[in-house]
Amino acid sequence: MARITAGVTTSHVPAIGAAFDRGEEKSDYWAPLFEGYEWSKKWISEEAPDVVVLVYNDHASAFSLEMIPTFAIGCADTFAVADEGFGARPVPDVVGHPELACHMAQSLILDEFDMTVINQMDVDHGLTVPLSLMFGKVDAWPVKVIPIAVNVVQYPPPTGERCFKLGEAIRRAVESYEEDLNVQVWGTGGMSHQLQGPRAGLINQPFDHAFLENMNNNPQALRSITHLEYLREAGSEGIELVMWLIMRGALGERCAELHRFYHVPASNTAVGHLILEAPKSEGPA
Question: Which pick of 21, 183, 266, 274 has the fewest CB atoms within 10 Å?
């Protein structure tokens, strides 16, 4: 059967993608950030996952304020790279895994999660920047991707508890798929940051470090963080961290932390990155 072998979290700051595309990875400003992913690139080349279930949020590329699903799953064969106003990033289109995605959609809906099924969707920096950080410059992404888009743009977003439970349901869905596949789940976005208003530029390093620590060692503490607490402690865009909890819920109770990285700043954002190894034989939840 398919199995979830690892989880990855990473910020998806658009300025990182721009720096990558301009070849600025070795510049004084950007080198410390990109160096934090060198271990990850070597690790993932050895792990060679077949599929990544990539949890991200759309930035008005596929969804406008006229229609924003709380949870959406991409079931297409391919996903084009979105033009976010300055032309599409010069990265490959994303290849999906429609068979597993459709199986997951059925499993999740029957598991009482109201997923929006997307059969055509362009994907923006929220999805492509994590791929660039983990795989570098490639002619084609070496993995198939199932996008899971989460509303963290328009109030009310889902709670951390609901996101964690979605992750648990994703694990059940993947493990009920008969094909032998190495699947990873990535949670993207965050960490603390605010892009507008009097608190623009907010970065709360103590909150971020506590969140990174608790992701593996005490995820129960993260499930109960309220929307107001995210806003107060991590800024208006810090709510993106609920997407990390989908990844964490998909891994089961016992994980091994393989890599941790934190960097300030990237643009006006705190960047966090984790790699967690799933237990070897968790079994269906």
Answer: 21
